[in-house]
Amino acid sequence: MPEANLSLYLLAGPILFAIGFYSLLVQRHVLRRIMALNVMGVGVFLLFATLAARADAATDPVPHAMVLTGIVVSVCATGLALALAHRLEAAEEDRADGGEAKR
Amino acid sequence: MSLAWIMALLLLAPLVAASLAFALPAAGRWLALATAAAVSFAVVRLAALVLDGGVQVHRVGGWAAPLGIDLRADGLAVLMLAVAAIIGGVVTLYAPAYLANSLATRGERDRFWPPFLMLWTALDALFLSADIFNLYVTLELLALAAVSLVALAGKRAALEAAMRYLFVSLSASLLYLLGVGLVYGECGTLDLSLLAVRSGPGPAMWVAAALMSGGLLAKAALFPMHFWLPPAHANAPAPVSALLSSLVVKGGFYILLRLWFEGLSGLLTPAAAQLFGVLGAAAILWGSLNALFAPRLKILVAYSTVAQLGYLFLLIPLAAGTTDGFTAWSGGLIFLAAHACAKTAMFLSAGNMLHAVGGDRIRDLDGVTHVLPLSAFTFGLSGMSLVGLPPSGGFAGKWLLLGAAIARGQWWWVATLLGGSLLAAAYVIRVLFHAFTRVAAPARSRPVPPVMEWTALALSVLAAGLGFTARGSATLLRVGAPWPSAGAGRA
Question: Which residues of B touch A79 (CB under 8 A)?
Fold first, then answer.
């Protein structure tokens, strides 16, 4: 890959990470925050993929292995976060119903 | 039994048990008991191997790094595995009775076992990992299991605490992972011992070290990144709070030690080391003061964890940059083991007292010694280790840290250690004061199953007597310690 493209990718990863991190801090809605975490993850994976392409001779397989593992971890974490968000929403609806019944 | 079998037992016993507990919910308790037996046996065998033959390395499946996975056991790893086995075993005995009384349905109770066993798997894997990417994976496993356990109670407050914990934990892991990427880009390796040779100061490495440390400090709940800990630990069921406070936060601290004293040891400047110490001192002060004024018992114990974690970080300025950092190193780690036992006993006895009086305000505890003398005694005995009275493990750890601070002329840490002990005494005595109040009519109470009282008591006795084993622990910690000059040295 040409040198100029490579540094573009090297920059893009951390920038995506920063955008995700910023959203995680400022967004209040649970789904937006879960998406922010995913954007952060993608930023890291992009950095790893760029590092793999940077190797002089052949593509370095180690970062690829790490990205694959990272994607699996990220899917699990997102699954848990969504399940938890769902439970939380149900608990909030329960409370809202209870409040109305009392009134 | 060969090394391969021991490693397999340590990792696969809890993993297989977790999967089985998921498929056969009713068997969870028995699977956990079997795991406790298998893991304890393996830890004892591993300790013997490490004491005899030095650092042990196992290549999983015969595949060499970087694509294969190395598992490595030195004295520090064995100590942590042993602590996890003890706490895991006690929680296994305590939890069934507690869950039967606190969670409504059988199905809810059975849901405790799979994430608990998964947490155990993650801890064992974390302590045995020898490269910074595997440490990331185990850290994430640990976080997912811990979040599931916090959400177990299912109440709104617990779910909210779990959600907040999940966001902090995942973003912290990603910060760490970004650092891992930078380190790999600079050094071309993930292996901790290779990094020790290849890593050196430089802008990219500084950024990487800062990112990784930032993430790990949030995981280890060091002040000012502790904000997520009190709600998560206080809203969980008692056995879960005990696991979180004694083991899960130590995972982040363990990786910090591995990084700063092994992989990135070339980057630890005196200023950076002192900064860790200053944050630790702030944690001691802030955590203790919050514990002193906490209205609820579990919040008090959780803030006490924030404070006690601060002591661990004093290890870093006291052990860094010297040819004999071992005194502070062993002191901090013995303190860690003692805190794990004492804090588990404290959370469990707090759980007993809260269960008996049916409230969680500290003033509800008035006269609780009349109905639960054993649990009140357990709370006091574990408090003794937290304060650091001899012969407790807390005393041995603080004594070694004090000795190192005096030897190195860093007097400000002496003041911190002593001041922190006074504050700890104050908040422990505050609880005991309520517990021992004479009340005309004994507090209304529900019976507490004996197993819940005796397991907590046994653990607090262990914490209180741990000071006697300090010499043995130090011998074990010598194996593979970063200071090769004296003793067994690096293998």
Answer: none
B375-416 per-position pLDDT tens digit: 999 999 999 999 999 889 999 999 999 999 999 999 999 999
User: How far apart are alpha carbons A101 and A88 in whole angstroms?
Assistant: 20
Give SS3 for B70: strand
Let me know the angle formed at the C-alpha of B232 by B229 and B236, rounded to the nearest 5 degrees.
Answer: 140
User: Which residue range(s) make up the domain with A12?
Assistant: 3-102
Which residues in chain A are contacts of B171 at CB distance < 8 A?
21, 24, 37, 40
Burial pattern B233-268, b for ≥16 Cβ within 10 A else e, equals bbbbbbbbbbbbbbbbbbbbbbbbbbbbbbbbbebb
Give the 3-state secondary structure of residue B220: coil
Q: Which residues of B touch A (CB under 8 A)?
A: 66-67, 133, 137, 140, 143-144, 147-148, 151, 154-156, 159-160, 162-163, 166-167, 170-171, 174, 177-178, 180-182, 184-185, 190
Check residue B235 and give its pLDDT: 87
Tell me the CA distances in angstroms from B199 to A49, A51, B259, B355, B415, one per residue in order.
Answer: 22, 17, 11, 52, 35
- CATH assignment of the domain containing A33: 1.10.287.3510
SS3 content of chain B, % helix, strand, coil (to 5): 80, 5, 20
pLDDT tens-place string over residues B347-377: 999 999 888 887 788 888 888 888 888 999 9
- The CA dihedral of B174, B179, B181, B187, to the nearest 10 degrees, is -160
Q: How many domains does chain A have?
A: 1
A80-97: average pLDDT: 88
Question: Which is nearest to B42 in space by CA: B82, B85, B10?
Answer: B10
Q: How far, CA to CA in Å, does A12 sit from each of A73, B133, B177?
A: 22, 22, 16
